[in-house]
């Protein structure tokens, strides 16, 4: 296990600052650098590290690990420069796409390529900038580490140790495998969300009045930064374009089947098969805790709209020794009360219902 | 205001039983009927009403309103039969599509069409059946009421009063306007979610390991019942197919722009314009409470994984007089602690942060 001792983070946006905060939490010495002095000042103020220019640059202060957290389009150049500047350091990055960056670094700095190992923590936010950073952003998240045939084994080790220090779970794969995977689980969903959201631009107010939670969920990520996302999609153009053509063909086929539906029983069955395939796909997704989502059961409690009721509810539940896995509050506008959904393990449902009944709570299943 | 006094609900699934429960809450007399005796027994057991066969059918026990909550494919026939059986009653339905049903009823029962007014409460669940029913399912939700040129004004009035008795907000529109609207805000998002979920059927475990919250949100509704959804989509084939072709064209255009991206600056700008359109669309969505989502601020608290911590947190918050608008718990797999996100009004952020600090909670912004 090669633990990094002195780390240099280039780029103090959401990702870079979060990594710096996570490392500081583990006692690692962190230096920060950013072309944007405002971002750098904020990150330093948050306790993410020391500006690299303030330290006297002695040879014994050279970093053993450099983490590049700059926008996708700038990655290759900044990584190559870091490899040259710090001949004793391993260099990694936090970019969402890996094959194009590896090709770029190979072209710019072939002689130092053995010290570069790509990385991609699977965490983020619709927000950006150092103020959105969190030391726990990576806790329990996957962190893809993408070695290449020329990476030194000890360089791979230090990058994997970085991921673990930040609380993440290492998923090792090649840069090509990574890009195919994120096209499927991240980039194409992003574009699909934007397509649905884009259709709303011409909707009337009356049409929007009928919008429900399903539409909100489907379009939430469409609020992401267009500048960042256009760079990400462009950097992974091949795999994303292939899947987008496939998704577009599916939509056309469903549309044609619907148009033919009245005269063809086969077409009706085709729509249903398409929907069943979606159910199969969504059931494959690991839930929170890495378990299947259906392992929790949701119990809904009516919450009178008085101060202190939520505290009383949790006190009643916890005094019965029941572990709540998830909570959601659904206030209905205009209604005198709210609904609280408590998710628990199936074994805990009966004790929970008993405890709620004992304390007079109004339960809906 | 024409208030219904004696209501007959045909179909005791999720929607029919929820309407019955909501009406009982307001003291309306409800009779229930279902071809599925198991569903009927459950609905009666939940207190949703009296089985219609148990009452002696005296003329003075005839309903003034019949609510049809059967699957889309059966709607027209059941509505026409109800219009014939109860000559003094207004008949409405709870179906997700309105123009095809109106055409079907017009063909089957043209002489009684003046007593039919379509309705569609914009609430539901991925679950189905009477056990998923809730008296408050419609509280604060939109309820589309779709009169036609031959509807009697008093028939429209009683259906709108039904929606209000159930706690919903009436949105009046024609059946054609309704179907165009739900194609946009419900049916096409459903298909888009299924397309993305369907791509996951062939994903490897390693690829799925990189899945995050964004993918989960986009694909949540894809878990809906394929049998119900294929009926809904088929009943609204025209408007849905048109928008699906449009969405498919968008996906193709983005794919082609990505493929051309390396050699054409224009293509890169096209991807960005597409993403910006998505941001514009998602910002048009009204939030919960009919307010924009950004009116609440989220504060994240680190929760030690010990029993009673959640109760202690809510007690500390409520003793400071702070109103929590929404709560989310995010357990990180493998991490010793969980994160609780508390959403509050912007004015409450400072007092909340002070109260949390005073009680020693570890807060992340």
Automatic annotation (TrEMBL), chains A, B:
Q: Which residues form the Prephenate/arogenate dehydrogenase domain?
A: 5-288
> What Pfam families does the entry give?
PDH_C (PF20463), PDH_N (PF02153)
Write down the chemical reaction(s) this protein catalyses. prephenate + NAD(+) = 3-(4-hydroxyphenyl)pyruvate + CO2 + NADH
Q: What's the source species' lineage?
A: Bacteria, Bacillati, Actinomycetota, Actinomycetes, Propionibacteriales
Gene Ontology molecular function terms on file: NAD+ binding; prephenate dehydrogenase (NAD+) activity; prephenate dehydrogenase (NADP+) activity
**Is Oxidoreductase given among the entry's keywords?**
yes
Q: So what family is this one in?
A: Belongs to the prephenate/arogenate dehydrogenase family.
Q: Name the GO terms of the biological process aspect.
A: tyrosine biosynthetic process
- Protein's UniProt name: Prephenate dehydrogenase
What are the alphabetically sorted keywords of the record?
A: Amino-acid biosynthesis, Aromatic amino acid biosynthesis, NAD, Oxidoreductase, Tyrosine biosynthesis
Cite the EC number.
1.3.1.12
- What's the source species for this entry? Thermasporomyces composti
Q: Which pathway does the record list?
A: Amino-acid biosynthesis; L-tyrosine biosynthesis; (4-hydroxyphenyl)pyruvate from prephenate (NAD(+) route): step 1/1
Q: Does the keyword Transport apply?
A: no
Output the InterPro entries linked to this UniProt entry: 6-PGluconate_DH-like_C_sf (IPR008927), ACT-like_dom_sf (IPR045865), ACT_dom (IPR002912), NAD(P)-bd_dom_sf (IPR036291), PDH_C (IPR046825), PDH_N (IPR046826), Preph/Arog_dehydrog (IPR050812), Prephen_DH (IPR003099)
